Amino acid sequence: MKRSVEIYDTTLRDGSQGEGINFSVHDKLRIAERLDAFGVHYIEGGWPGSNPKDIEFFAQARRRRWRNARLAAFGSTRRKGIPVDRDEQVRLLLEAETPVVTIYGKTSLLHVREVLRCKPEENLAMIRETVRYLKDHGRTVIYDAEHCIDGYKLDPDYAMATLKAAAEAGADLVVICDTNGGSLMREVAEVTALAVRTLPCPVGIHTHDDIGLGVANALAAVEAGAVHVQGTINGYGERTGNCNLTSVIPCLTFKMGLKTVPRRSLRKLKELSQFVDEIANLRPNPRQPWVGSAAFAHKGGTHVNAVQKITASYEHIDPALVGNSRTVLVSDLAGRSNILMKARELGFRLHPDMPEVKEILRLVKEREHQGYEYEAAPASLALLIRGVLEHNPELLFTVETYHVSMRRDAQESICEATVKVRVGDQVHHTVAEGDGPVNALDGALRAALVRSFPELRKVRLTDYKVRILDSAAGTAAKTRVLIESTDGHEEWGTVGVSENIVEASLQALADSLEYALLRKNRLRRRHAKGS
Amino acid sequence: MKRSVEIYDTTLRDGSQGEGINFSVHDKLRIAERLDAFGVHYIEGGWPGSNPKDIEFFAQARRRRWRNARLAAFGSTRRKGIPVDRDEQVRLLLEAETPVVTIYGKTSLLHVREVLRCKPEENLAMIRETVRYLKDHGRTVIYDAEHCIDGYKLDPDYAMATLKAAAEAGADLVVICDTNGGSLMREVAEVTALAVRTLPCPVGIHTHDDIGLGVANALAAVEAGAVHVQGTINGYGERTGNCNLTSVIPCLTFKMGLKTVPRRSLRKLKELSQFVDEIANLRPNPRQPWVGSAAFAHKGGTHVNAVQKITASYEHIDPALVGNSRTVLVSDLAGRSNILMKARELGFRLHPDMPEVKEILRLVKEREHQGYEYEAAPASLALLIRGVLEHNPELLFTVETYHVSMRRDAQESICEATVKVRVGDQVHHTVAEGDGPVNALDGALRAALVRSFPELRKVRLTDYKVRILDSAAGTAAKTRVLIESTDGHEEWGTVGVSENIVEASLQALADSLEYALLRKNRLRRRHAKGS
């Protein structure tokens, strides 16, 4: 049987320490659900003792079912000088009601003396008592040995004494942390091997990428016997980030032949990476190992030629295994199969040879060049495909004119929108106020449409995202709006692009409502039979 | 004496294969001059056989003086079936008139058979004859063994025979290349160690970052005896890029204690990295190890507190050694120490015990709870700090009213903004059109202010970012706008938050212009003395 390595995700805790990352409770829940579906073994949701948002996260997470992952709350050993059952931060850890609690403690004498400012023995007692207390309350306890490599270099005996204190108090796992991320592979391997030899419990690894070795150090630890790897999606984290799970998982699986998450999940690795970037509102890094858009792109003439001869010649692995794809080389073909797959997902049946497929592909490329993105907007893609298949069918409604006005003076601030919408022979002219221009326009548009389509009352927006494309152009840059809508049963995403945020929002709103109307009764049925 | 490792830069050749990178001859010369001053040992300028731009580069490079680096022209072994002195590509290598010529040849039987489509013996002859020919013409010859690790795994005897062919024909150095970037550290170390043991010449290493181990694999090879490392600045290169010299050089120097480039050069490492990004027109990666703007950024309150106690506690090295500096991010995780450090960076002098510090902290937390984010908006933070220190000073200008209107009908789409701005006793009432509401408002506000403050003409926006907070609230969600501005010398960031994107943008725009006016003449001077 293959050796297994557990994956412990801390995107929501250590990852959120990264510059420019600010997850809402809702964001965190959405990411946690994806991680659970992906198959990581642990999800560290936050540090309830550090902020109210994390307390709220665990309160909401308790009410959900988790299929694969076990939730972990993060915290520290008790404070010096008080009994563990009086420590507020420890109490909050229990109140998070997670099956797993992860606490960090000091390994380095430097930190014990200069940061904690307590006696070395007191630190050992803090570790021992906190671990035991959490175990007594029925938790699986993971002990993160902070600054473990640096602490070991400074005073190996004391460092090992802290690890033993945790293990002997009942910790289920002791994790070697290279907190400052400045260690070399052989240093990490040495300390890990020693811990594996001497501790009564399994050993894990937690690394950072400060000198560019976050992933390499985790792999070195696994070679030395670690059976648990902590990291974050896309390597988010303080400073240069944590060990990147989107690299370390495929390295462990495909290069070292170990068992991590299910193989079929790995085919969604790129999708997961993009999803998390999207939620964090970060631009995906095209050069990211394994999952970046350029990771299997071939530019050099020789390479492309060789790749055509034998794909293995300039690729270390089949890109599909991590949900990525080769680019450059007949991107036409790759694109076509993508479109066919998407169309099938959306309920259309297309054959590769239909002339419409080529037209759809051309349109998608043209619009993506303009800034549209269909990855997160399948409903807009469905409307585009339908448009080609039915040769520009009549729309169910048309926004003929609109006017949005905002006025602020000393007394008040008013935002008002009017729309004139045509539905067949009827014209609805409506007005609404809102918090901002888009909100007002949304109100006016719905007010107009429910007159003809009362079923739209059930439809509401669940997500609204704006991204500025080519942001260096200042306020004249293009804006991409992504909208998620729901009718209580199903969710769908739409997209709009324009220099004008109001116009881009209107496109995405109109697509969303059009899709809601077409969806069940017409769109699918017609084409499922049709072609 | 310390062991030395040679640094071979291929930014201009392999780096230029990266997606989105397109250097002109002039760009290449500027980068080469910087690399020379920095102290790399070799600069690979291009492949004269592959394009006329590279021929031109060498023609111009010949006329310059190189102080530290030796220039290398890159090419391949002769083609199959012709004598080496008839090979056009080899002739162009000599005509580049560089002291060093680097050629690559096939190591892997797979490539010999499927890509070259020649006999294994013919490939050995191609290697031998090309090396000898270039040696006979007085060149230092570096032999790059393409696909060396993969080739070794496939057929170790043949792979080693190719390396020996090169070395015995007189190559000055044989370089182990992990061309597809898919190898693990121990695989690279094994092949390198064998080459070091068996070849009569020194051994180098050339790695790629496809699985996230570009730097780690180069270090593993050096540990196994390699004395020469090939890579690119910022890790540019095909797919996910080459071994990143901005990581590998400081790792070798500071972590492994080896001699590479002069220590004083390393203090300009960040500058070099930024310079090359600028020439390539790429946005610097804030999370880049060693040299990224976030590489020594501290966000968590505990960390910041500890960093102040002892800088070594959460930093693996003094950032000044690589020309970087510590930054402190102000966020809802932050404590008082963050604020004090940040205020100092911004030119204020605060003492921890001043009652204003508590008030500033309270305000920051309150506003971050509302959705403001100061880590990317230090200019807005400076205005906030000033506001507290001066007990709500009078603003230089006030936007008394504004009106924004957008109208679209069948004929046209118009977006217009008016503002009424008070500056002392004067009131300016202006109007402007724009691509969207924010663009129009920006135009009107500037038109108003330049009447009183002509110096604002120089100020322009360089970046405009929008983030929807708690996006699940639909179009009524809060909007955070981050703006970057410049006057051509300095850059500064400001922030605005509101349910209304126009209002949020106006706040950030107003902060930006207020800061531009206060900055030099008032803000700093006053408080540098004042408190």
Explain what the structure shows.
The structure is a homodimer of 531-residue chains. Chain A is of the alpha/beta class and 531 residues long. Chain A has a domain of 256 residues: TIM Barrel. Helix content of chain A is 43%, strand content 19%. Chain A has 18 helices and 14 strands. In chain A, the strands form three sheets. The first copy, chain A, has an eight-stranded parallel barrel with strand order 1-2-3-4-5-6-7-8, surrounded by ten helices. Chain A has a three-stranded antiparallel sheet with strand order 9-10-11. In chain A, strand 7, helix 9 and strand 8 form a beta-alpha-beta unit. In chain A, helix 1 packs antiparallel against helix 12 and helix 5 runs parallel beside helix 7. The radius of gyration of chain A is 27 Å and the shape is globular. The two termini of chain A are 48 Å apart. The interface between A and B is large, with 114 and 118 residues. Strand 9 of chain A pairs antiparallel with strand 11 of chain B, so a sheet runs across the interface.
